[in-house]
Amino acid sequence: MSSIKKVVLAYSGGLDTSIILKWLQQEYDCEVVTFTADIGQGEEVEPARAKAQAMGASEIYIDDLREEFAHDFVFPMMRANAIYEGEYRLGTSIARPLIAKRLIEIANETGADAISHGATGKGNDQVRFELGAYALRPDIKIIAPWREWDLSSREKLMAYAAEHKIEVEKKKDGKSQYSMDANLLHISYEGGILEDPWAAAEQDMWRWTVAPEDAPDEAEVLELEYQHGDIVAINGWEMTPAKVMTKLNEIGGKHGIGRDDIVENRYVGMKSRGCYETPAGTIMLRAHRAMESLTLDREVAHLKDELMPRYAKLIYNGYWWSPEREMMQTMIDASQQHVNGTVRVKLYKGNVSIEGRKSMDDSLFDERIATFEDDEGAYNQADAEGFIKLNALRLRIGARR
């Protein structure tokens, strides 16, 4: 402990990290530099600054990383159509490598000996933060208080906070909030009643989306313009990646888009139940697949689909900075050269429907060949007989045996 003079703490200003700040000062007798990443959580940022100042942080970093998060992390992941275990859109997972990267940069800038985070010893985030940190600075020291202290329950944390006069957001009945994480891609909820996988989530828990049954009775149609697999404009208005996501979150939330209630398999071995709101991500994944359906070669599209679960698993488990993820990203990005055009989506009461897709220069859809009408010789249907017989040859030989 005596070798640790300065620590950079990933600090949200919430219950866990506020307690960790005080705990580091007491247990390690060291300076604590706080780092808060603004990746789209909005109102949480400035309260974190005020709390860190009040608790004696030696330096305070609050960085607006929304554009970097969207451009360098979320959009590349969307090009892969990544989704974990068929349901989870990786909202928390994809934010961790960026936070790890900035933690290491600040440690280097301030001469810190170590970094610290508020991830528990039961969760995935400890793995994601630390794999990222070690990949970027192999000799970094990492302090994970949840693996050291005896504050093993929310009740003990609340008691510690009360003892040290640490302000904590509470529900009206006095109980602690759900464990939540928010960024441009999603907001997640864990703990409390959600620890019973049979219990329905409380309706007042959801913050970004209306209930689908309460969404407007009139559908809303959007046109999303793509360049090289990325959305660059909505309804003709050019936007940066972060602004695209902000706009889609706003519109999607209004229509009840993107609610998920999932039991997932954590990397550490246990199953956990969480609820998620991912309005922009839900729209983006649906629309991107529609754009690829028109512009990607069949075998390229199928190869991407085969690789996607592996790619999603790498992100979920914390291997964003691994050589295998970077290799796969190079291939995925190469596949997006011709993913250009426009997708028309309809949003209605929790559903995202594709109404149309077009690409002026990169479409592989040939109406002359695909038509059910007279194709004027563009496709010789008689050719199909030999194709079928050759592909059936092994089946016929096997059947004769």
Please give a structural write-up.
The longest helix has 20 residues, at 298-317. Strands 3-2-1-4-5 form a five-stranded parallel sheet, with helices on both faces. Strands 10-9-8-13-14 form a five-stranded antiparallel sheet. Strands 6-7-12-11 form a four-stranded antiparallel sheet, with no helix packed on it. It has twelve helices and 14 strands. It has three domains: 6-76 and 88-177, HUPs (Rossmann fold, 3-Layer(aba) Sandwich); 187-358, Argininosuccinate synthetase, chain A, domain 2 (Alpha-Beta Complex); 370-400, no CATH class. Helix 7 (241-254) crosses helix 8 and helix 9 (298-317) runs antiparallel to helix 10. It has helices at 15-28, 45-54, 66-79, 96-110, 125-136, 154-163, 241-254, 279-295, 298-317, 323-335, 367-370, 383-400; strands at residues 6-10, 31-38, 59-64, 114-116, 141-143, 179-182, 187-190, 220-227, 230-234, 237-238, 259-265, 271-277, 341-348, 351-358. Helix 1 links the parallel strand 1 (6-10) and strand 2 (31-38). The chain is elongated, with a radius of gyration of 25 Å. With 401 residues, it is an alpha/beta fold.
Keywords, separated by commas or semicolons:
401 residues, alpha/beta, Rossmann fold, Argininosuccinate synthetase, chain A, domain 2, 3 domains, 5-stranded parallel β-sheet, 5-stranded antiparallel β-sheet, 12 helices, 14 strands, 40% helix, 19% strand, elongated
